[in-house]
Sequence to fold (693 residues):
Amino acid sequence: MGLKKRLLNLFFIPLILLSASLGRTATLQEKIGQWFAEGKTDEIQEALTQELELNPSEIDLWLELADLRKSEGDYTGAVAAYQAYLSKKDDWKTRVSLGIALEQMGNFTDAEGSLTQLFHAHPDDPDILWGLGRLRLIQSQWKTVRTQATPQDALKDAQKFFISLTDRRSDFALGFWQLGEVSRRLGDTDRALASYVKAVKLDASYKKAYRYIAKLLAQKKEYRQSLAKYEQAIAIEPDDPNIRKEAGQVAQKAPEEAQKRKDERLRQWAKWVPPAETSIAPSSVTIRVGIFTGLAHLLFRGTSAMEVMTAAQTPLTILQGGQDYQVISIPAKVSPKHKEIWALKDGRNRKILTFDQRIRVRPLDPLKPLLVHAVPSNTGYFFAKEEDRCYRGELEFSPRSGAGFNAINLVSLEAYTAGVLPSEMLSSWPAEALKAQAIVARTYVLSKLGRHNAEGFDVCDSVHCEVYRGLRAETDRTNQAVNETAGIILKHGSMVMPVAFSAQCGGHTQDYQEAWGYAAPVVGVKDYDERYNTDMDFPLSPYKMEKWVKEDRESYCRVFELRGYQNFRWARMILAEDIEKKAGNIGKIRRMRVIHRSTAGWADRLIVEGERGNKELKGDLIRSFLGGIRSNLIWIEPQYDLKGWPEEFIVYGGGWGHGVGMCQVGAYGLAKAGKTADEIVLHYFPKAELKKL
Fold:
């Protein structure tokens, strides 16, 4: 062999070895991502350990190991992995991760030394400011780790760090929440109030903030504003007796304010002039929409005379337009002589008729709507509210033995779509996004007909089905989108496509089957241009999962100019004691971890481990269990106390909603990028076809 050939061989052999090593590492990354989604953490631990023994130069695998251990609640192991990485490469960002991990595991002394040293070198880094602010807050509660003279001094230091943090990250709702908490404990009412208000403005899902805002306003004797916030807090958390108790106490302090609010609502109702009905494409399909269930009293009126009839359309009476009428359910008394009564009365409480079967009210002028007072919407969600509404079509009142009555709106398919579209998507959004939503909304209701058959209607009017606010929500732009797409739906073969949609997918939608366990031709798609996020291979490894959830990645739904949708990425703090109350009889919590994820990274199985047992949550129940967080695309980090028990959990997340099907903000982004409605819906439903109904 010649000298030249031998030299070439010497050059290529290391390249071949390097290529084999890189290929093996890439294959390992794919396996780790799949195993992590499946919850096979032991396999990942073993594979990473073996690979690091074979290739100690692959130091990034220590970061994978650190995040794997963090996901399991093993912060001692995570700290060891960070230290192993830093022994090979000194990287200040990794030292920040190490310092915060030391704090989270309860090693506050080492955490303070590490974070304080980093602060002197990088005083503007948000992660360091967050870590030191949290550390001072913890030190205010634990004398044995306090480095300040008094708890108040520690709180004042914490406040300074959080002020500095929120100055640098004005979009960080959790930072403002923590600033509010610290300021409230310091008695700094004005700053606490301003911080809570800012947190809610940035992320309206901070449920507890409404209550604290109401309490602080009451302390300032601003009772009217306080009662308004308590009403909002009760709508969001209707089952919390403490909020109702506090609201009652404020109402007792200012009874005239409480009565003024009630009187003002009735004055608004009496003066309200509803919008006129505009032309909507006809449809032979009728949708039965449940707007109330289990009701005892309802106030309504018509803008024209109304006919009352049976469900079989037998006329019963005529009601005058412009006057109030009531439907009332009177339960039976504890006596065999008394019966349950359902009655239709006028505004002066005079009985017009009684009924024990369904009755309907229909305007004699089909272009004049029916008005209903005080309709609650999305009770239990942070966007819950109550409003007066008006509806096209007919109203049906359905007696329910022992459970009051249900109120149902009978409306054509296209009129229903006209009431859904502006309730689900802002009318100012691009026309192509509106048309895409109209197609999906129309398809959705057809695929869900009879979902609420047991209650006497097809679909409800809240997020459980689709938000439907009737004529009051309609606008010229959204009605135009409905009319331009009239009758167009998505089909898969001969079947109506079982579509779904959510507000924000966080960058990658979910498979229908992975999210809900039912076979359906709705698959997860990347919600970004293929030129971006090339380092993210789904399913994601532990290290990439944390990066994906915590970083602002490129996505069609990463659109910060939209009010209410700035929280493409978000964070929430949840107390361990709140989780213990919901978990039942499992005792003190030891740890909480995700044990299974969808391909897109969404948590679909969460286990809470207690000293006396475990509780497992699946699918959408995870969101409600964790206090109504925005989505299941989450990464959870605990904060342990000195005795090794978690005191609270920080949940980092992405997106808003269940993440299946069309991403609404993503549709906005695609429309802004020049895509048509057809292209948008087929991007999210690649297995569907557009068909005319």
